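stage 2 :: seqdesign
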């Protein structure tokens, strides 16, 4: 288990020594949702810029490597947007699909 996960488990055990009651489960997991910090977004963006060509899958893989957690769509979008703001040409094949 990563240090991050170990801290979360300890925090939950301290707050809910008898287990998480059903009404608290959804709000608790909503609070635990992973979000990249600004520093993590910068690290991912810099690593991708150094590498050259990449796509959404590459962004997700690198986020997983850096954070040891699966990226959310919002995490990927933040990295994508940061790269686009710095002029990286991000052609998304989904943008060119015809919508019926």
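stage 2 :: out
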């Amino acid at each position: 288990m990563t240090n991050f996960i170990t801290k979360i488990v300890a925090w939950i055990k301290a707050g809910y020594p008898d287990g998480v009651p059903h009404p608290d489960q959804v709000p608790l997991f909503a609070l635990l949702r992973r979000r990249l910090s600004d520093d993590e977004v910068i690290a991912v963006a810099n690593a991708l810029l150094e590498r050259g060509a990449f796509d959404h899958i590459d962004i997700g893989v690198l986020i997983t490597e850096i954070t040891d957690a699966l990226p959310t769509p919002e995490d990927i979008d933040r990295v994508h947007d940061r790269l686009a703001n710095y002029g990286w040409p991000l052609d998304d094949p989904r943008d060119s699909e015809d919508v019926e």
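stage 3 :: structure notes
- Residues 1-33 form one domain.
- DSSP finds five helices and no strands in the chain.
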